[in-house]
Design brief:
Layout (H helix, E strand, L loop, with lengths): L1 H25 L3 E7 L18 H9 L1 E3 L2 E2 L5 H10 L3 H4 L15 H7 L3 E6 L12 E5 L9 E4 L2 E4 L4 H14 L7 E6 L37 H4 L36 H10 L3 H21 L3 H36 L6 E7 L18 H4 L3 E4 L8 E3 L3 E2 L3 H8 L14 H6 L8 E6 L12 E6 L2 E6 L5 E6 L17 H17 L6
Parallel strand pairs: 1-8, 1-9, 2-11, 3-12, 4-5, 4-8
Antiparallel strand pairs: 2-10, 5-6, 6-7, 9-10, 13-14, 14-15, 15-16
The structure holds calcium ion (CA).
Length: 521
């Protein structure tokens, strides 16, 4: 009797599994992969910070899962995008820094989805220099893109549009959804330029922080003692921001000299600002000037110096950055509303992420690149009502390397062996997965050329510790205990209390470099 009931149970399980698989084949999930550029976790309210409210990104988190330990493998724009498309580290996909161009002939997840019958689309920031491949529809910004009246390439045709770029990209994304072939599942990459430098918000968010305090990080006045000289020798301090492009001051003889802005030789602040401001039409300029002229006149009247100038710059930067984020959040809301209104909510996976994190004054910095927490971290929230329960938070180490395998897994497509990431599907469903990674490997390449003078480095991060090696023009190691020192102010390398930890981290690093084929290229 026992055997019979076991057999019946097994048959029932088999029947259920088979019907699930058939259901999956019949109605594969749609995918909306939303990515912004340089969006720090600290600027998302779901991550527990109060800098601003992001109700729409929070909706995704509340209706699904938020990853607290999501990281990038190389914290810079184009390389991160290449990692996401290929599921492979920079040393294997060939795009190590922003000077490289993407080899579009490689295997990518959109190509595999397209082959399996998905309609694929890429709308917004692409930034990989070569023509997108694997998409039925693409409409992309040129290079970094502009905040106002952007030029975009629509399937090969260059057009200039009138309006605010974050809103326009969303208009095009919604047009695509509205006109798609409803007999097929879709995968849309909906990628924003904002809040990438030079942080130009739309008029509706100019006054978002009027009369509101914007707290400064505790380590804004970091002196970089107790760490590698790499930390002191960067060129990404808020004090050195461009007065025109970043601070939006029009050229004026009474201004002090502009900052270095971390720029490479030949980059001209005045010209870059003239181009950004010059893109606006008369109406847009009038709205802009009505807000910014009084701020600039006040600056010229007071001529702040020293700490007062540092804090003025921090405040100006943060107001513009957060105003640009608020516009991204508005537009995430438009897409979520569309899904709800068109009955697409249940069977659509929505991911919100950024190509990496960003410094909002920590260590006195803006920009990214470092393996330190603020730029290593990438916000990641995901919802899929059919399979992911609402309101989960996960602490496992997940990577931008994991997007490609994840989307393929949801679509029921076999994950190619050459992809180095792992599918997040089980993790998202059960808030745990067997044999999940307990450490991650990181590597940054853009030195000495390019922007911001951040030394080449690689390293390993576990749930508690981090080991970093700076090399090429120096040979320095850093070890941080993130539990005791989450702001990474105290290098513990060669500290007697951490002798064993240091040894283990070195072993882990060697193991990862071998497994990930780092030494072989
Ligand atoms: Ca970026």
């Amino acid at each position: 009797m026992k055997h019979v009931s076991r057999l019946i149970f097994a048959l029932l399980v088999f029947a259920t599994l088979t019907s699930c698989q058939q259901e999956e084949k019949k109605t594969p999930p749609n995918i909306i992969f939303i990515m912004s550029d340089d969006h720090a976790e600290k600027a998302i309210s779901a991550y527990g910070h109060n800098l601003l409210q992001t109700p729409n990104i929070d909706r995704i988190a509340n209706e699904g899962i938020l990853f607290e330990n999501s990281f990038v493998t190389n914290s810079i724009c184009a390389p991160s995008r290449a990692v996401m498309l290929t599921g492979k580290y920079s040393h294997l996909n060939g795009l190590r820094d922003n000077r490289d161009q993407f080899d579009g002939s490689q295997l990518t997840f959109p190509k595999l989805l397209q082959k399996a019958g998905y309609q694929t689309a890429m709308v917004g920031k692409w930034h990989l220099k070569t023509t997108p491949q694997g998409f039925d529809y693409w409409n992309i910004l040129i290079n970094q893109g502009d905040y106002y009246n952007p030029r975009m390439i629509d399937m090969g045709d260059t057009m200039t549009h009138t309006g605010y770029t974050t809103d326009l990209i969303t208009d095009f994304a919604l047009d695509y959804l509205e006109n798609r072939d409803e007999t097929k599942p879709f995968c849309m990459l909906f990628h924003h330029k904002a809040p990438h430098r030079n942080w130009m918000p739309p008029p509706r968010h100019f006054d978002l922080f009027k009369d509101k305090d914007i707290p400064m990080p505790d380590n804004f006045y970091d002196d970089y003692a107790n760490r590698s000289v790499a930390a002191a020798e960067q060129d990404m301090h808020i004090d050195d921001m461009f007065l025109h492009l970043d601070m939006k001051l029009h050229p004026n003889d009474e201004l002090p000299p502009s900052g270095t802005g971390g720029g490479p030789p030949g980059f001209t602040d005045v010209n870059a600002w003239a181009n950004a401001y010059g893109r606006m039409n008369d109406e847009q300029k009038a709205a802009w000037d009505a807000h910014y002229d009084p701020i600039n006149q006040d600056f010229l009247k007071r001529k702040p110096t020293g700490k007062e100038l540092s804090e003025w710059k921090y405040r100006r930067y943060m107001e513009d950055y957060l105003g640009s984020v608020a516009a991204v959040d508005d537009n995430v809301g438009r897409v979520l509303d569309y899904l709800e209104e068109h009955g697409l909510e249940e069977n659509t996976i929505v991911v919100y992420t950024s190509d990496q994190g960003f410094y909002l004054g920590e260590h006195g910095w803006y920009d990214k690149r470092w393996m330190y927490e603020e730029s290593l971290s990438m916000p990641l929230v995901m919802k899929f009502p059919k399979e992911i329960s609402a309101g989960q938070r996960n602490k496992d180490i997940v990577l931008n390397l994991d997007f490609a395998p994840t989307f393929l897994d949801y679509a029921g497509i076999e994950i190619p062996r050459e992809m180095q990431g792992a599918s997040l599907r089980q993790l998202a469903k059960n808030n745990m997965a067997d044999d999940w990674r307990s450490s991650m490997y990181y590597e940054y390449f853009e030195f000495p050329h390019g922007w911001h003078s951040v030394k080449k480095h690689y390293g390993v991060r576990t749930d508690r510790y981090k080991l970093i090696h700076y090399h090429t023009d120096l040979d320095d190691w850093e070890l941080f205990d993130l539990e005791r020192d989450p702001s990474e102010m105290q290098n513990l390398y060669d500290h007697p209390d951490y002798k064993e930890v240091q040894k283990e981290l070195h072993n882990e690093l060697t193991k990862l470099r071998k497994e990930l084929l780092v030494e072989e290229v």
